[in-house]
Amino acid sequence: MIGEVVRLVLGRLLALIPVLLGISVLVWGLSALALGDPARASMGQRADPAAVERLRRELELDRPAAVRYVRWVGRVVRGDLGLSLRDRRPVTAVIAERLPATVRLAVAATLISVGAGVPIGVVAAARRRSLLDHALMAGAVLGISAPVFWLGMMLSLVFAVTLGWLPVSGYGGGDWAHLVLPALTLGALHTGVVARMTRASVLEVARQEFLQTARAKGLSETAVLLKHALRNAAIPVVTVIGLGLANLLVGAPLTETVFAWPGLGRLLVVSVDQRDVPVAMGAVLVFALVYVLGSFVVDLVYLAVDPRTRRAAAQ
Amino acid sequence: MPPPSSRVHRGLVAGGVLLAVFTAAALLAPVLAPHDPLAVVDPGTPVALQPPSARHPLGTDALGRDVLARVLFGGRVSLAVGVGVEVVVAALGGVVGLLAGYYGGLLDAALMRLTDVVMAFPTLILAIGLVAVFERPGLATVFVVLILLGWTTIARVVRGTALTLKGREFVQAARALGARDRTILFRHILPNSLGPLLVAATLGVGGNMVAEAGLSFLGLGSQPPTISWGAMLADGQSDLLTAPWAAVFPGLALLLAVLGVNLLGDGLRDVLDPRTGVE
Question: Which residues of B touch A238 (CB under 8 A)?
């Protein structure tokens, strides 16, 4: 049994390898394309050709692409993503500085989307086809369709500008009040997705026979759903929460721009704008790694939670 | 989501109506717009950031341009990118998916690993990264970037249906009768994959519209004088306190248009495939 689990985890790990390879080739290729000729770029159009040639050799630009790629991977693995073109600081340091703000925002948004989305889905399922159900599901579609940056501005208009309850923008040195609006904004879309998924999986489970038994015992519909259906509906919901990582990461650059939140998303946008390619590509790489590793963890949780997936995967 | 029945699907109708209104408004923008969307309308008077009035139903922006006219013309860009990109994406992803699903083997493995890699990036993140590669941001860049990223979803969907369909009796029968691969692919498998493809493509249109607006909002998409809802929002944000209408209306337009597309896509899914739930 233990051996089987180890084998499954190893299998998942192995499956990561081609994806990680692909990501690295893509990011490396993109930065090579975006940089053009870094030697000429850093020395200017009228530089002495011999000096440019020297720098090219120094930067190993005269080596074949495969060699440069392998060396690049070697540096990245050691945590060296190059220097920012703007202030010559190591890209890794710049990213490390910004990452905590984004993580904080993403965690808060996830808590909101699960904390609101799951109850909304259960209530909608319990009162299915009622006015409340339709209203909640309409709200969910609205949350999914609302552009995050616009939603952020509207929330800020109401709660910060008009009512003056919360700060308009900024990090506020980690103050909680500054976190509320960005987290609500980022969490809204995913709340809609979680609510719909919860409702659908609860209803799916609710059709099954063991719930008929529970109903026959005289349990109330809410009790049936909460005690029996929700637990069995947990698997798809866990997946959707994991997939939410993608939504959160996509929303990060937009939300952080609206609220002047000093995170990785904002860093990415600004660096692309300033054509600071090493920083931009470093940020893209980190986003992709977080996403892929996040999905990997969700996969493992899946295996741990549901014995059926273990059996299916073993076959 | 109400189950499909002989009754009309409400979401489907609502989405269709919303989308029809937006399409009509975009097509008729030159007729409907009360003013030139690019011009300062009342030069000489303090025209910037006027609140909504009879003359400017949605007010004016920071440069004194009519917001209603700009929202109408912005809809053209949004819909053109949303639909235009998706047409290319559906064709490209459809062919890739058909070939991968039908032939399988090395081709399938290679194509699917490629989609794995593209899908390993959150779309907007990779889109921003791709914009960095192109020298100049602009609508053309947005177009290319969204096509490069969008085909994977369709390819996955069509591959899945092709894989199922190729084992079905009617395909086996066609093959037994000596039909060529091309006939089987385009006469038998493709028509039966159109339902899922249509659903994915419809939802893709909404995704494209949001992505275009997002990139333009970040200053990495359309550039002036091209009018985009995303760029209007970015311009409006600085005056949110004094003139919220400059940001509220383009965002509302985007919300309603995307809502229309999503309702239509969800409705199509319910109608075409009663078994699938949400997501």
Answer: none
Q: Model confidence over A3-37: pLDDT tens digits?
A: 777 887 888 888 888 888 888 998 888 888 887 76
How do residues B26-73 score in pLDDT, each as one tens digit?
888 888 777 778 777 666 666 677 778 777 777 777 777 888 888 899
Answer whether A124 touches B (CB < 8 Å). Answer: no
Q: What percent of chain B has a predicted confidence (pLDDT) above 70?
A: 91
Chain A contact set for B120 (CB, 8 A): 19, 22-23, 288, 291-292
What does the pLDDT read at residue B43? 62
B2 to chain A, any CB pair closer than 8 A? The answer is: yes
Q: Which residues contact A129 (CB under 8 A, 6 or more apart)?
A: B2
Taking CB atoms and an 8 Å limit, are A200 and B1 in contact across chains?
Answer: yes
Best residue of B123, B218, B238, B261 to probe chain A, by most A CBs closer than 10 Å = B218
Q: Is B106 on the interface with A (CB under 8 A)?
A: no
pLDDT at A132 over 80: yes
**A164 — pLDDT class (breaks 50, 70, 90):** confident
